[in-house]
Structures are given as structure tokens and as C-alpha cells.
Design brief:
This protein is of the alpha/beta class and about 220 residues long. The protein has a single domain (about 5-215), classed as Rossmann fold, CATH 3.40.50. The chain has six helices and seven strands. The longest helix is centred in the middle third of the chain and has 29 residues, at about 100-130. It starts with a strand and ends with a strand.
């Protein structure tokens, strides 16, 4: 059975570049997102690159949907060796315009889905004494901006979650890492392009010397 990377929050930027990087290294790609039409397109694109993939439709902010998606994924492909959580709700809204309900809704996607995704794969990783958990971080975690208030909180929380998991899972030989992307991701940017960022995730996965990796990129 092929090695599997599960990507929750599959999209056309960083996560697709991660799918390509790991896929070209022999991983089967399992994609989770709520837009089935886009997932079909990604599957076709990966196929043209010779990379096997499957997709599972779920809103990462809905626990029951995410649980079902991972259950089906594991039944069909086996337990993932790598998890990449890339989902985030990005919106230009000033922090003083946010409400309890809107902040809570965003946290479900920005953080809650990440934690629940980890819980779906960590048992098997502990059993096999190997695995890598990756989170797409953001510079807003370090330098928050009030116009992206909710996302700033979410990225700070993802960084905090990564640190907690890195400490908690180190005994089980599970690597945890986050790439804190401190720039605007664009395909033509010489540094902040998805391919370069995906390479940072790959480096975390291959690094053997430590359990927790924080890359400020």
C-alpha cells in the first residue's frame, strides 16, 4: 500500500503545491475540501502529473463531515503518514466589527478543524511510531492586523496548537511543524510562491533531528 498524505483544506495554492511535492516523492494524495467540482479538477491535474489521488467532500468546520471523510479515506487508502492542514477562513473585516458568533464560526475552520483532523490520524501514527503533522501558518500570528482580526487570532491559535502538539507527541516520534508564511502568496513571487513554500513543508517532513519545527518564512 502506498504512503498517504492527507490534505485538509485542499486548494489551488500552497496545498496543491504540497500535493505535487509529496506526490512526486511517492505519496498518494488524499484531498479534503467542501467544493467537489474543484476537487475533481485537482484530481485530474494530479493524474496528468502521474500522481494518484482521491478526494473526500467535507466542510472542515463540521465535525461530523470531517469524521466521515477521514473514516472513508482510511478505509480506502489506509492511515495517512502525513497530515497537512491548510484550511482558513480569510476575510477583510476589522476586529471591532466582529461578533461572538462570527469569531466562533471562523475558529471552527481556522483551528477546530485542525485539531479534529489531528485526532483522526494520531492514533495510527502513535501505533506505528512515525508520522508528520503540518500546519499552514501565517505572519498574522506574529504581527496581527486589525483589518484581518479574526484570521490573526486564528493563525496565532494554529501556532499555539502546533507548539502544544509538538510537545505532546514528541515521545511518540511524531513530527509536528508549521510554516509561518510572512508574505503574500503569489505564483510569480520569487520567494512567496507555493512551490517554494511546499519545499519548506517537505524539509520539515524529512528532518530527523527534532520533533517540533517552526519555520518563519
Amino acid at each position: 500500500m502506498e504512503k498517504v498524505i492527507a490534505i485538509a483544506g485542499m486548494g489551488g495554492g500552497i496545498s496543491y503545491a504540497v500535493a505535487l511535492r509529496f506526490g512526486r516523492a511517492g505519496y498518494q494524495v488524499a484531498m479534503i475540501a467542501r467544493n467537489e467540482e474543484k476537487l475533481k479538477i485537482f484530481k485530474d491535474m494530479l493524474f496528468k502529473d502521474g500522481i494518484p489521488s482521491e478526494y473526500y467532500v467535507a466542510d472542515v468546520s463540521v465535525q461530523s463531515q470531517l469524521t466521515k471523510a477521514f473514516r472513508k479515506l482510511k478505509e480506502e487508502l489506509g492511515d495517512p503518514e502525513v497530515l497537512h492542514y491548510n484550511a482558513a477562513r480569510i476575510k477583510d473585516k476589522h476586529i471591532l466589527r466582529e461578533s461572538i458568533a462570527s469569531i466562533a464560526s471562523d475558529i471552527k475552520t481556522n483551528v477546530g478543524g485542525a485539531l479534529h483532523s489531528v485526532k483522526q490520524v494520531v492514533r495510527a501514527m502513535k501505533k506505528s511510531k512515525k508520522g508528520t503533522i503540518l500546519f499552514t501558518g501565517g505572519g498574522l500570528a506574529l504581527e496581527p492586523h486589525p483589518n484581518y482580526g479574526s484570521l490573526s487570532i486564528g493563525k496565532a491559535a494554529i501556532l499555539n496548537l502546533a507548539k502544544q502538539l509538538g510537545s505532546e507527541l514528541s515521545y511518540a516520534h511524531i513530527k509536528v511543524g508549521t510554516v509561518v508564511v510572512k508574505g503574500y502568496v503569489q505564483a510569480k513571487d520569487p520567494k512567496y510562491n507555493p512551490t517554494m513554500i511546499a519545499e519548506e513543508f517537505w524539509k520539515i517532513h524529512k528532518e530527523e533531528s527534532k520533533a517540533f519545527h517552526l519555520v518563519e518564512y
